[in-house]
Amino acid sequence: MGADSLEVPGLGAPPDTEWETVVGLEVHAELATETKLFSASPNRFGGDPNTHIDPVSLGLPGSLPVLNEKAVELAIRVGLALNCRIQPSVFARKNYFYPDMPKDFQISQYDQPINVDGWLELPSGKRVGIERAHLEEDTGKTVHIGGGGRIHEAGYSLVDYNRAGVPLIEIVGHPELRSAEEARQYVAELRSILVAVGASDGKMEEGSLRVDCNVSVRPVGSDRLGTRCEIKNVNSLRSLGRAVEFEARRQIDQLTSGQPIEQQTRHWNEDDGRTHALRSKEEDYDYRYFPEPDLLPLDPSAEWLEQIRQALPALPRDRRLRLTAAAPSVDIDHIALAVERSMDELALAAISGGGAAERVMTHIVQNLADGSGQLTSEALSDLVGMEQAGELTATQAKKVLAVLVESGGSPQDAAQTLGFEAMDTGELESLVDSLIAEHAEEWSRFCDGDGKLTGFFVGQVMKATQGRADGKAVTQILNSRRG
Amino acid sequence: MTAVEIAAAVRSGQRSARSVVDEHLDVIAGGDADIHAFNLVAAAQARARADEIDGAVAAGSDPGPLAGVPVALKDNLCTRGLATTCSSRILEGWAPPYDATVVEQLHNAGAVVVGKTNMDEFAMGSSTENSAFGPTRNPRDTSRVPGGSSGGSAAAVAAGFAPVALGSDTGGSIRQPAALCGVVGVKPTYGLVSRYGLVAFASSLDQIGPFTTTVADAAAVLDVIGGPDARDSTSISDSQPPVSDTLADGVDGLRVGVLAELSGNGIAPDVAARLQAAVGALESAGARVAEASVPAAVYGLSAYYLIAPAEASSNLARYDGVRYGLRVDGSSTPDMNTATRSAGFGDEVKRRIMIGTYALSAGYYDAYYGKAQKVRTLIINDFASVWEQFDLLVSPTSPTTAFSLGERTADPMAMYMSDVCTVPVNLTGQAAMSVPYGVGDDGLPVGVQIMAPALGEPVMFRAAAVLEASL
């Protein structure tokens, strides 16, 4: 080990050192425009290879880019939603050779991006700084034929330029995330914002949202950043969490065994759950950025910015605050989940319609994971009311809810169809009395205080009524009979 | 016949477009073996188009202001279905699927494309010797170069192959060959003519313009190809008044500056003498002439030879063997890219790609590209203050008359000096043109350059018409 290695934070750290993970994310989101960033070809996922193309998106000699105004508007929406400063910006060419990049340069923004200095708030209330959110064009896709799809073993490669020129916004966050879970929350929040403002469909599985994570570790209490590695190919929130966990562990193991971290780009492999070195910093390209001479500088007018600002919908953070105010006793994770599922409006309406907040939120979090379908806020509110009034058991309510989601209507009708009409109290009492008579031995053990017997009698009632009875009401009757 | 005369004759039914086109195709067939102005002569297509125009005239409709006028296009202008080579091996076999905006405009005005003209590869050169298909010769003296890079277009007009040709001017590539071949050549204000479909050399400098034998023809063509184009973001969004309308307005009272930095050192005495004669003619016509100075103009060539290669290094990256043109196989994609580009590009193109790549590299950007852009700003500012005192500036177009083939090919710096008078105006985006004004001691044409502020074409053309008439 040379003297330089002493400069690496953590090297030579005692074995009981506590480590902190530091994560900074770069998120690429495809903007939901009709057409490409610089041409009139459709911006659409899928399609036969090389059908969404034109001279500009193929970079044919003589073609010139013309900026898509809608893409700029969406980028501004994102900037505003991320509390950025919107500034005059300049497009730049990022030069490197790659077969799926038709011009062998990418039109991006470099030293003057459109959005700078923003922040995003996690549901926990923690704010994460946004360095920039700039516009750029996407590349095509290369398919390697033969050799199991790996580039080095492939017999040949085919390129599909349908995606080339699709507008992207690249959102660069500061390295202020401190765990895999925070990284996951950050991306979830960012995705909610992108979807809320209509900028992107946020589909990670279709590649319309792509995440590169920069991971480093340092001893807790250190204020210096460790050497980072950039992880590519993280295609879901779940793999994001796994990749960060793995990479942090790998770096800690390496540092505690006395090996410095090499700055690298690494590839996340979903199958083996590990990151693998792609290239080192020395192998990085010199992109030779310079201002794109075929496009004018972009300077959106104050009026236009104001117009866009006025038209912005409520953002996830505001929606969480509103829902929290209506359901103050509900856990913030559940509030966040409702907003993430875009069911906060439903919850708010059901609560203001008289449904008990906690019960409404329980249904949303536990029973509506697959969407609310035909369910109306009135029906949800009434359903919760029926539960509170003892007209439906929790089990029955869940079944009724499924019907409401599937085909709409009122919970009263659904309950009737399902045969869940609440038993009248007198009927229930005489049933309990006859069961007590039938099971004298169990009854006397119950009266001696054997709590397990409550379950026995409730079970018998349920069996006799095919689940129609309210368990709580049965317990009450049993207790009153014990005297 | 001039273009204006041809169009008038065809529109009035006095002559058929077909006879005009046949006549020019005959001249080409008889003369181009010696000159090599054309990379491709589109004879069948031209005849078919001429017949269409004659049909339109017969049916009583007007085919447009350039009806039946044969036009030669520099081979870096995209023509649908017609090979567009930039005189480079690397575009071998490629025919664009679309027409450049100027090609559409010419078509809509009734012009007939007769062929694609030779050029320095990717417009990099000043003699048309850097063509993969061999040099073009100067019709005035076939031992001399026609200038470049639009040498084929200049030669085509000078040889009578077509009354009109289009070229592109990045650092003088229209004006210098126009001067050396004794024809009119115009570099319009940057943004006046759409670049859509012009294969890019240096995007912030490139501009398309006409070659013609007369000033009025140049005006007629510019009036057709100028104007806004939604497909070029750098196109000027407002329509401009037709240049032809004010062509005869003279120069009485105009303030004309003789640009000192481009008219003294390094200018051959016979060329300088012709400039003096031109200045005299403008004065006689009522212009007030004085010496003008743009001190930063002397740095123009240095700035140009960093900015243009830098942009070119990026613009020419796409010729990688993947999608079109030449492909030389290799064991990997990068090897294929390298093999293709090594085989496909000529030496001058490689030289400029290397200069430009270097100028943009991390650690060198500020010292080279960044500084060149500052010099560019300085030149723009210097010109701006000169325009407060002058309506037009004049200088020689080229320091010398046409030089011999092979004379400067071994010495790139000597070749680059050919552009010293023309480059500053590309850096500023202003309008400029070259007007033939007699001959030098060797009997070869001399051109006078007239420069105007941005969108100063109407005034510039008035002076050009005065010079033309004074000969």
Main features:
heterodimer, A: about 475 residues, 3 domains, nine-stranded mixed beta sheet, three-stranded antiparallel beta sheet, 15 helices, B: alpha/beta, Amidase signature (AS) enzymes, eleven-stranded mixed beta sheet, about 40% helix
The overall average pLDDT of chain B, rounded, is 97
Please provide the ordered H/E string of secondary-structure elements of chain B.
HHEHEHEHEHEEHEHHEHHHHEHHEEH
CATH architecture of the domain at 3-245 in chain B: Alpha-Beta Complex
Largest sheet geometry of chain A: 9 strands, mixed
How large is the radius of gyration of chain B? 21 Å
According to CATH, the homologous superfamily of the domain at 3-245 in chain B is Amidase signature (AS) domain
Number of strands of chain B: 11
| Percent helix range of chain A | 25-40%
Give me the side-by-side strand order of the main sheet of chain A. Answer: 2-5-6-9-1-10-11-12-13
The CATH topology of the domain at 3-245 in chain B is: Amidase signature (AS) enzymes
SSE order of chain A: EHEEEEEEEEHEEHEEEHHHHHHHHHHHH
Outline the secondary-structure elements.
The complex is a heterodimer of chains A (483) and B (471).
Chain A (H helix, E strand, L loop, with lengths): L18 E12 L38 H13 L3 E2 L4 E5 L9 E5 L5 E7 L5 E11 L3 E5 L10 E5 L6 E7 L6 H17 L12 E11 L9 E6 L2 H20 L7 E6 L4 E7 L9 E2 L10 H9 L5 H11 L5 H9 L3 H9 L4 H11 L9 H12 L5 H14 L3 H7 L7 H14 L1 H8 L4 H14 L5 H12 L1
Chain B lengths: L2 H9 L5 H19 L2 E4 L1 H16 L11 E5 L26 H8 L3 E6 L33 H8 L5 E5 L6 H7 L2 E4 L20 E5 L2 H11 L29 E5 H4 L5 H16 L3 E5 L7 H16 L17 H12 L2 H14 L5 H21 L5 E5 L15 H6 L5 H6 L2 E9 L5 E8 L4 H14 L1
Parallel strand pairs in B: 2-3, 2-4, 7-8, 7-9
Antiparallel strand pairs in B: 1-3, 4-6, 5-6, 5-10, 9-11, 10-11
Helix pairs in contact in B: 2-3, 5-6, 10-12, 10-13
